[in-house]
Write a structure and sequence with these properties.
Length: 352
C-alpha cells in the first residue's frame, strides 16, 4: 500500500514504538513531517577516485572489490575490529571497522562496493577507517549530495536520511502547491515537488539553490499573508470604546512632569482606546525615556473604564520593580495593583 502524507512514521520500515518515540522528540510524527524537516547541512559525496590517486586530506568515493573474506578480531572487552582488503585496478586498501562486527558478514567476497571515506597511508599500505560501504548496485548515500539532519538519541543520520528518501520518492508529488502558477512564473520559482525533492537530495548545487529559494519565498509569503490577515481581523473586529477622562487627572498623580513625547504617546493611546477598534501599538524609546509611564496611563484608562490590565515583564525582578513603582502611583487613584509571578503559589496565587 502506497504511502500518504498523513501516514504515521510507524508505517516506514524499521520504525517500531521506541524509534517512533525518538522521532517524535524531533517533531516527526507523519510522512509530511519528515518532508518538512529540512537538512541543517550537506555532505558532497560525488567525488570518485581510485586507490592510487585518492588524496589523503579529502573524503572520496571508491568502487572497490572485496578481495578476501573480512577478518574479525576481539582486541579486548568492548573493542572489536573487522579488517577487509578491498581492491581496484590501481591497488588495494585495508578497511578497518571499529565495533562493527556485522561488517564481517555484510561485506561479501567478490562483490563490488562504493566506499566513502578518507584514504590514508603511503602507496602499497593504504588504509581507511570506518568508511561508509554500499553495494555498487544499491548505493543510496554514496555518489550523491547527502543531507545532514538535526538528530536526537537513538536516531542516526543514515536512518533519518533513509526514511526521508523513501518519503521523497513516494510522496514529494503529494505536497500541496501553495503558490499560484502565475506567481511562480513571475518570480522564477520552482514547483513544490521539485523543491521538496531537491532540498533533501539535491541533484546538484543549482537545484539545491532553486529549492531553497522556492521554500524560503513560500515561508515568507505565508508569514506576510498571515500578518495581513491578522491586521484585517483587527481592523474589522469590535473593541470596547473607552471614555477618556481629562489627562490632567492622571498627571496629578505624578510627582514629576512628562516630556512632550510622552504626552503625545498618551494622547495617541487615548484616541485608540476611544475608537471602538482594538488597539495594537508599539511604544519605542531609549532606556529611561519613560515608556513605563505611558503603559501606566493605559492601565489607568482601563481601570477608569471598569476594566483590568496586565502589565507583563520578562523577568520577576523587573516585574517587582514595576510593582513597587506603580502600586503607590495608581493606588492614589483607587486602582488596586497586584504582583503575580511564578513564585506566587497555592492559595495566594488563587486569591491574586
Amino acid at each position: 500500500m502506497a504511502l500518504r502524507l498523513g501516514d504515521g512514521v510507524e508505517r516506514l520500515p524499521g520504525i517500531g514504538p521506541a524509534r517512533a518515540r525518538s522521532l517524535e522528540k524531533l517533531g516527526l510524527a507523519t510522512v509530511e513531517d519528515l518532508l518538512r524537516y529540512f537538512p541543517r547541512d550537506y555532505e558532497d559525496r560525488r567525488r570518485f577516485s581510485t586507490v592510487a590517486a585518492a588524496p589523503v586530506d579529502t573524503p572520496v568515493c571508491l568502487e572497490l572489490l572485496v578481495a578476501e573474506p573480512p577478518r574479525l578480531s576481539r582486541i579486548r572487552k568492548g573493542l572489536e575490529l573487522v579488517k577487509a582488503r578491498l581492491v581496484d585496478d590501481t591497488g588495494s586498501v585495508t578497511a578497518t571497522f571499529f565495533n562493527q562486527s556485522y561488517m564481517k558478514d555484510a561485506l561479501r567476497t567478490g562483490e563490488t562496493y562504493v566506499v566513502y571515506g578518507r584514504v590514508e597511508g603511503p602507496p602499497g599500505r593504504r588504509q581507511m577507517t570506518n568508511p561508509v560501504c554500499e553495494r555498487a548496485d544499491r548505493a543510496r548515500f554514496t555518489g550523491r549530495i547527502l543531507p545532514i539532519y538535526p538528530l536526537t538519541r537513538g536516531i542516526s543520520n543514515n536512518l533519518l536520511a533513509g526514511l526521508t528518501l523513501r518519503c521523497v520518492e513516494e510522496c514529494a508529488g503529494q505536497m500541496e502547491e501553495a503558490l499560484p502558477a502565475g506567481l511562480r512564473r513571475e518570480h522564477a520559482l520552482a514547483a513544490a515537488e521539485f523543491a521538496y525533492r531537491n532540498i533533501h537530495f539535491p541533484r546538484d548545487e543549482e537545484a539545491l539553490e532553486l529549492a531553497r529559494r522556492r521554500l524560503t519565498f513560500e515561508e515568507l509569503s505565508c508569514l506576510a499573508c498571515g500578518m495581513a490577515l491578522l491586521r484585517t481581523r483587527r481592523t474589522c473586529a469590535e473593541g470596547v470604546p473607552f471614555s477618556t477622562p481629562p489627562v490632567e487627572e492622571f498627571l496629578a498623580l505624578l510627582p514629576f512632569s512628562l516630556t512632550a513625547a510622552q504626552r503625545r504617546a498618551m494622547e495617541e493611546v487615548a484616541v485608540d482606546t476611544a475608537s471602538g477598534a482594538p488597539m495594537n501599538r508599539l511604544v519605542q524609546g531609549d532606556v529611561g525615556s519613560g515608556k513605563t509611564m505611558v503603559a501606566a496611563y493605559g492601565a489607568w484608562l482601563a481601570a477608569k473604564n471598569g476594566g483590568q490590565c496586565a502589565l507583563m515583564a520578562p523577568t520577576e525582578l523587573l516585574a517587582e520593580q514595576h510593582f513597587r513603582s506603580l502600586a503607590p502611583l495608581l493606588g492614589r487613584a483607587g486602582v488596586r495593583v497586584g504582583l503575580l509571578t511564578g513564585s506566587v503559589k497555592g492559595k495566594a496565587r488563587k486569591e491574586l
